[in-house]
Write a structure and sequence with these properties.
Strand content: 5-15%
Distance between the termini: 16 Å
Number of domains: 2
CATH topology of the largest domain: TIM Barrel
Mean pLDDT: 97
CATH architecture of the largest domain: Alpha-Beta Barrel
Shape: globular
Order of helices and strands: HEHEHEHEHEHEEHEHEHHEEHHHH
Structural class: alpha/beta
Number of strands: 11
Helix content: 40-55%
Number of helices: 14
Bound molecules: ligand TUI
Length: 307
């Protein structure tokens, strides 16, 4: 299936992997790219030299294109931006902020820049700043989110910009893919389904929580701090929401989540850890390889789009 995104990124299928903190390391990114999508290394809060190593390891596992996601709240973002250029990475997605200050550096180096946006205003600003495409990410997504749903956001972003749009948030199978195409998107970004990929290094306990999750099992913490985050409900989210209700200050809330994603992903602590996942978790029933996931999605989507 050809779209402006498959052409822009030189990939077989218009599916890109979310740049998930701790989850999106080189094994997952390479597996998604080898399966014909675009794998991404999530730089998250990692030091730049760690990101450099991840890029090199990914390159050992695949000769297909892959990218890096830069999380703009990362204090090391400037160094990470530089490493991306030095290592010859061809695609960058960004999240949780405005990447304008890195645009010139990346564009001059021939890096394709695809900011993740959660509003029409941000999409328009990114297009004016030189973005090659945008990911329109609805609030069904896991992790840091905006406030508009994918169904409402994607067609409004499609109408507002002329660069290609990638739909994200609540997409986990071929139906979500086909619906995204109907909304005017030219690719999808998928996160939660890749959390439980066979090649994903996420701890088995975390994967099991995603597989067990039902439609209503995620919740949003951090509304009061301006950094809303969607994750699966557990002891940590209950305590966090209680503290927020009581008007706890930012530092007190931070204490609860400091290192909590690592705790979930690496240690498998599903009680005190942060289990970032999207609302589509309820649809995900089993661990599969990245290749099986992508083939499943494309087969189902093609049948629907041909109807
Ligand atoms: O970035 C994400 N998802 C993330 S980042 C992350 S790490 C984190 N952990 C705790 C708190 C905060 C971050 C986990 N998941 N998705 C892309 C995304 N970007 N969603 C929303 C936005 C966004 C929000 C505001 C993009 C731009 C923006 O603009 C604000 C500005 O600077 O104008």
């Amino acid at each position: 299936m050809k779209t402006r995104i498959t052409e822009l990124l030189n990939i077989e299928y218009p599916i890109i992997q979310g740049g998930m903190a701790w989850v999106a390391e080189h094994n997952l990114a390479a597996a998604v790219s080898n399966a014909g999508g675009l794998g991404l290394i999530g730089a998250a809060s990692a030091p730049a030299e760690v990101v450099r190593e991840e890029i090199r390891k990914c390159r050992e596992l695949t000769d297909k294109p892959f990218g890096v996601n830069v999380m703009l709240l990362n204090p090391n973002a400037q160094e990470v931006a530089q490493v991306i250029v030095e290592e010859g990475v061809k695609v960058v997605t960004t999240g949780a902020g405005n990447p304008a200050k890195f645009m010139e550096l990346w564009k001059n180096a021939g890096v394709k820049v695809i900011p993740v946006v959660a509003s029409v205003a941000m999409a328009k600003l990114m297009e004016r700043t030189g973005a090659d495409a945008v990911v329109a990410e609805g609030m069904e997504s896991g992790g840091h989110i905006g406030s508009t749903t994918t169904m409402a956001l994607v067609p409004q972003v499609v109408d507002a910009v002329s660069v290609p749009v990638i739909a994200a948030g609540g997409i986990g199978d071929g139906r979500g893919f086909a619906a995204s195409i109907m909304l005017g998107a030219e690719a999808v970004q998928i996160g939660t389904r890749f959390v439980v990929a066979r090649e994903s290094i996420v701890h088995a306990n975390y994967k099991q929580q995603v597989v067990k999750a039902k439609d209503i099992d995620s919740t949003v913490t951090g509304m009061s701090t301006g950094h809303p985050v969607r994750s699966l409900r557990n002891k940590m989210t209950k305590e966090y929401l209680k503290l927020e209700k009581e008007g706890a200050d930012f530092m007190e809330l931070e204490k609860l989540t400091l290192g909590s994603l690592r705790k979930a992903v690496i240690e498998g602590d599903v009680v005190n850890g942060t289990l970032m996942a999207g609302q589509i978790a309820g649809l995900i029933k089993e661990e599969q390889t990245c290749n099986e996931i992508i083939q499943d999605i494309m087969k189902q989507a093609k049948a629907l789009l041909q109807r």
